[in-house]
Amino acid sequence: MAGAAEIVTAFQQAMGREDFAAARRLLHDHVSFAGPIGSFSDADSLLARLRALQANVASAEARRIFADGQDVCVVFDLVFKAPRRSALVAEWYRVERDRITMMRAMFDARPFDAMLRTLGV
User: Fold this and answer.
1) What is the DSSP string of 52-109?
2) Which of 47, 65, 100, 110 is the most exposed place for a label (fewest CB within 10 A)?
3) Are the C-beta atoms of residues 23 and 35 closer than 8 Å to each other?
4) What distance in Å separates the CA atoms of residue 28 and residue 32, rounded to the nearest whole number?
């Protein structure tokens, strides 16, 4: 059994290389997500939105990862392609039985309003 921080790191790395199948394997089927890109209660809907968002992402550069048991917090710079801006993002994950069961994403989405509207947010 891998540690919670290892699971979250593997998820973020899979997303970074656009390996959505690997990312999906790390999500619980009924993952709970809330953040500026919407709210979801199933992995496939969340992954579809993340895939659409990923098309607009130039890079995600981790600054810090904090772990406390099953809870992991990742703070990173999310750099968008257009508009070419970055956002400081904090994501809180809960990992149970080697799967991500909960995600909360927090960042100031106002500068990215037009881009998020194209995603249906």
Assistant:
1) HHHTTEEEEEEEEEEEETTEEEEEEEEEESSS--EEEEEEEEEEETTEEEEEEEE---
2) 110
3) no
4) 9
Residue 19 three-state SS: coil
Which strand ranges, in their side-by-side order, compose the sheet holding 71-80?
A: 38-40, 27-35, 99-106, 86-96, 71-80, 57-68
Q: Please, what is the Cα angle at 111 between 35 and 8, to 5 degrees?
A: 35
pLDDT tens-digit series, residues 11-60: 999 999 999 999 999 999 999 999 988 999 999 999 999 998 888 889 99
CA dist 39 and 21 (Å) reads 21
Residues 26 and 96: beta-carbon distance below 8 Å: no
Tokens representing 40 are 């979801």
